[in-house]
Amino acid sequence: EREREKEGKKEGFVMGAASNAGAETPSNNPSLRANEDAMRQIMHLVFSEIKPFVTQHEPDVPEDDLPELSRTRDLSKADFTVQWSRFCAKRKLNPAEYVKNLSETIQKQIEDGAHQDGFIKSVQGVGPYMNIFVKRQKVFKLAINAIIEQGTKYGCTNAGQGKKVIIEHTSSNPNAPLHIGNLRNVMIGAHLARVMQACGCEVTQAFYVNDLGAQIGLTALAYSRIYTKIKPTMKIDQWIGAMYAVMNTCQELQQVGVQPGDLEDACKAGEDAVKALLEKALAEAGNDEKKIKSINEYFDIYQDLRGRFQDMMDIMIQDVREISDIKTEAGKLNLAYERQEPWAIKIFRKMVIDCLTGVQETLSNYGVKHDRFDFESELGWEGSNDKVLEIMKNSDYFVPQTECNDKGVPQGAYLDMDAFIRDQKFKIGKGGYQKDYPPLYVLR
Predict the structure, then answer these.
(1) What pLDDT is stored for residue 444 in this prediction?
(2) Which residues are CB-neighbours of 162 under 8 A, at least 6 positions away?
């Protein structure tokens, strides 16, 4: 406990221990020092007032044996408290009686005028607890003066000095603008970074760029076909997000047997032509409910996108007509990028950086700026992904992929974390890991 106290990990103040949290003797005009925990300084001031009473009552007790001063959970009952149970147990004393006598002694001296200019208003014995009430107007004045004097530095400490922290946040897919879910992560990550900086840590804010995967390949396919043919008509990340929405819809239409070019021709011909094409597609779907649902859904989406991005779609559909299988074509583009083919790198990196430029413009509105951008593709290029996977596969807890697990269904490869936790004899349940801990799936 004493070591934890030194580390500042416990919000308490050891009554008998010397501390550098404030002056050793109370002052009529104390002040809070910058770059130190304000609450702990206030607790020290309270301690320095009450310590003479305690040592007078217990002159032969070593200071290290005295209990600690701590904050209370319910401020209506007390501002600070001291728990005497352990102290009394070692001396075979009744804690309630001991605290009652000690509190009455201290309270009488306070009422007799001891430390009239101090912070303590009164003390009260409640079972094994000695509850302490402070003169709140005096504490508030102390805090307000410190805030005025220290300004934006108030509350900052050096507790984390010398520690390096990396906080990865936002990390939205680099093929669309930020949405409200991303903004939640931005606010949590950026504010956590500022809290850590206020504690004296050296903080790096990182953005993990997910520049691989099916949706990135689809976007790159659209970007490569139309970027040089038409100028953006909106913010660049929104423009790229629209490219993805259109190309993904065209891919989904192909998957249900509808060529996007045919639907585009029907849209130009009018409602009757669209209705006829829809009825034909539904008839060909037969009784496949999933396919029927997709046909209806993507007919509606295509027409909605056409109403919003017609200039872009007029250009894009000309190229889409020549792509017999969008999914396969996007996959080939992705594979070329993973293989570091220069022409593919040029397409992907230009698209991703353009999109991130628009994202950063949005983040700037909230005063958020990342220090580094780490690309997923580079982890693959340098071999880090393969190294990690190899380590996982060599683990005693690795379970390989199967087409039929014990429940008769396919299951991907994973690490059996529940078995690991039990073998390591980690605590399970309340205050520990959850029972039946879920597996860690290997996705690459």
Answers:
(1) 59
(2) 200
